[in-house]
């Protein structure tokens, strides 16, 4: 194979892989919910984790106009949730969620669904908040303190 054909084939393969990856990722639906801001935190309905296709969503992203960054809430068990501020601890950029990982688009830091640093340059874990299941199938994210 000559150089020109090799470059053409390589470029076509790279473009195809990129398009396929984008297409597959677009099939995964991300659920955004607007939380109800309360005096000490933010609440949302547990039903936000329900999905028509496979029963339960792995996570939802909670937004509110008074929050500078969204909060990603992972459902780790039936009544166990983890809430993570989606702000990179390296340079303060908003993170992107992809399954069980949160990734910084600026420098590639990665965090797991518990907020632990998986890949530098970030040196600190994400800020996490305690989550409680309260009356009427509501989740309450306590913004005053860090999760233990």
TrEMBL record:
<dbReference type="InterPro" id="IPR036922">
    <property type="entry name" value="Rieske_2Fe-2S_sf"/>
</dbReference>
<keyword id="KW-0411">Iron-sulfur</keyword>
<keyword id="KW-0001">2Fe-2S</keyword>
<dbReference type="InterPro" id="IPR017941">
    <property type="entry name" value="Rieske_2Fe-2S"/>
</dbReference>
<feature type="domain" description="Rieske">
    <location>
        <begin position="44"/>
        <end position="140"/>
    </location>
</feature>
<dbReference type="GO" id="GO:0046872">
    <property type="term" value="F:metal ion binding"/>
</dbReference>
<protein>
    <recommendedName>
        <fullName>Rieske domain-containing protein</fullName>
    </recommendedName>
</protein>
<keyword id="KW-0479">Metal-binding</keyword>
<dbReference type="Pfam" id="PF00355">
    <property type="entry name" value="Rieske"/>
</dbReference>
<keyword id="KW-0408">Iron</keyword>
<dbReference type="GO" id="GO:0051537">
    <property type="term" value="F:2 iron, 2 sulfur cluster binding"/>
</dbReference>
């Amino acid at each position: 194979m000559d150089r020109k054909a090799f470059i053409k084939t390589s470029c076509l393969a790279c473009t195809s892989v990129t398009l396929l990856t984008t297409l597959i990722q677009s099939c995964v639906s991300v659920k955004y919910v607007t939380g109800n801001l309360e005096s000490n935190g933010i609440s949302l309905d547990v039903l936000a984790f329900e999905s028509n296709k496979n029963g339960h969503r792995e996570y939802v992203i909670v937004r509110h106009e008074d929050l500078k960054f969204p909060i990603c809430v992972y459902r780790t068990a039936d009544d166990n949730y983890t809430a993570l501020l989606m702000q990179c601890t390296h340079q303060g950029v908003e993170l992107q969620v992809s399954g069980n990982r949160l990734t910084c688009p600026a420098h590639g830091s990665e965090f797991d669904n518990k907020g632990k640093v998986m890949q530098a340059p970030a040196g600190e874990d994400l800020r996490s908040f305690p989550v409680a299941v309260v009356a009427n199938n509501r989740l309450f994210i306590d913004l005053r303190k860090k999760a233990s």
